[in-house]
Amino acid sequence: MTFCAAPSDRSMEAMPLAPMRRGACPSLSTPMMTGDGLLARLRPGKSGFALAELAAIADAAALCGNGILEITARGNLQIRGLTMQTVPLLSQKIADAGIAIAEGLAIETPPLARLDPTEIADAVCVAERLRVAVAAHQPPLILAPKLSVVVDGGGQLNLGAVTADIRLRAVRINGEVLWLLALAGTEATARRIAVLEDAAVVPAVMDILKNLAAIGREARARDIVGAVSARWAVATDLDPIAPIVLAPNAAGIHDLGEGCSVLGIGLPFGQIQAQGLGALLEALEILGAKEIRLAPGHALMVLGITVDRIGAAQALALGHGLRAFPRDPHNHIAACAGVGACRSARIDTRAVAQMVMDAAPTLLDGSLTVHVSGCAKGCAKPSASALTITAAPTGYGLVVNGPASAAPTAYIEENNIRTALEHLDKLVSERKQGGESARSCLTRLGADGITAAVQQG
Fold first, then answer.
1. Which phi and psi angles does 329 have, rounded to 5°?
2. For residue 71, which of 54, 115, 266, 298 is within the disulfide window of CB 3.0 to 4.6 Å?
């Protein structure tokens, strides 16, 4: 079979903070102003944090911010409530603790990379080679701040649901490990471009990045999908390559074989207080935890606890109000920071999310994610959801099978949101057929049926 070849610290002490540009990512060097102060997003410079490192970050967040930390939908760490005066101190605290923070192009690998025996290939190795190539390029590539690359070697917690500009996914064809290159989307929505041998991966991605840089710092992969597809003479049919089976929610115990397991702990609505995180880490260390990895879905992956103690760690996390079991309904709600924490938000997202849990539990059977967004940006879940509740001029908008940016299918007055959710829950409860999931039922009922339910008096 023939496959395609690739086409041809410095300190912040004296550095003023640049104003945050809409559409850029809030890093430690360029924090973003939000409703509760400045927000800094940290991408780990290595696979995970030692417990002492994450504890140091929690202490710094309490000292320099308002004590609220977040794990984002993509698995990055955010510190809230900072000020112009405390950001340099936060940077210094992180540097003093010897914590590596990544800057520049986001290149993401699965949270269990190099641990999961079911993965097809070493995604970390490919990601490291790509980082070296990007760093060595002269002149430096000026790329869109939100541009991202996913390198997915497979395994239990793959990145199939994560949106990316450039996707690389390991595939096995006729016993040979190769890489499927796709652009602009999730595993399900990205345009497949080519299948590459390992040696061709970095040159191919660098070619795409150089083309994006030549267009300008606003260019994203969606802008060049057609041109890239036309330039590649695909020598194999990409359609038969089976889509990846999307990873389950990270919360719960993940068996890695040979008596080794990892515990996934999710943050309800993505947030935790620094004091609570510090107490959790202290208790986990007593149980034998050695490392924490961040994971998509607002989760922490706890490594090092022996199988005989992992149940105790799971109960400990539950006692801290965290998501530690796959069937926890919190797993199936995505909510952004909301009004008061974000300048763009116009609704109390966490209150609405709690209302969904109380008034519409039938929806939270694990077959779909209910997305509650304070504005059209949809930060908590950029991709489409079966149901999205977002802010509208006179209350709430309900988007069926779309992202927060889509036009609402129905509008709900502010005082009627609980009643609307109760009606929707009743509809699904009564109309579900034997063995049918909430998602399947809603799909069968269609947008008109959902709209009629939530808008009845």
1. -60, -25
2. 298
The whole-angstrom distance between residue 60's C-alpha and the CA centroid of its chain comes to 23
Average pLDDT over all residues of the chain: 88
pLDDT, tens digit, 9 for 90 and up, residues 103-140: 889 999 999 999 999 999 999 999 999 999 999 999 99
**Contacts by residues 122-126 (CB-CB < 8 Å, ≥ 24 positions apart):** 122/153, 123/151, 123/152, 123/153, 123/168, 123/170, 124/47, 124/153, 126/151, 126/153, 126/168, 126/179, 126/198, 126/201, 126/202
Is the pLDDT at 233 greater than 80? The verdict is: no
Using a pLDDT cut of 90, give the percent of the chain over it.
Answer: 61
CA distance 104 to 121: 25
- Per-residue pLDDT band at 190 (split at 50, 70, 90): very high
Q: Does residue 14 carry a pLDDT above 70?
A: no
Q: Is the peptide bond before 361 cis (omega within 30 degrees of 0)?
A: no
What one-character DSSP code corresponds to residue 199? H
User: What is the pTM (predicted TM-score) of this model?
Assistant: 0.83
Judging by beta carbons within 10 Å of its beta carbon (0-12, 13-18, 19+), is residue 163 exposed, middle or buried? buried
The pair of structure tokens assigned to 22 is: 């809409």
275 touches 67 (CB < 8 A): yes
Q: What whole-number distance in Å separates Cα of residue 195 and Cα of residue 183?
A: 13
- Whether 212 contacts 134, CB under 8 Å: no
**Sheet of 385-392: strands edge to edge?**
333-335, 370-373, 385-392, 395-402, 410-413
Residue 85 makes CB contacts below 8 A (sequence gap 6+) with: none
Nearest CA-CA partner of 215 in 224, 227, 205, 206:
224
The answer to whether 186 and 74 have CB atoms below 8 angstroms apart is no
β-pair type (191-196, 271-273): unpaired
Is residue 141 within 8 A of residue 209, CB to CB? The reply is yes
The number of CA neighbours under 13 Å toward the Cβ of 357 is 17
Structure tokens given for 309: 């103690």
What digits encode the pLDDT tens for the residues 296-308?
A: 989 999 999 999 9
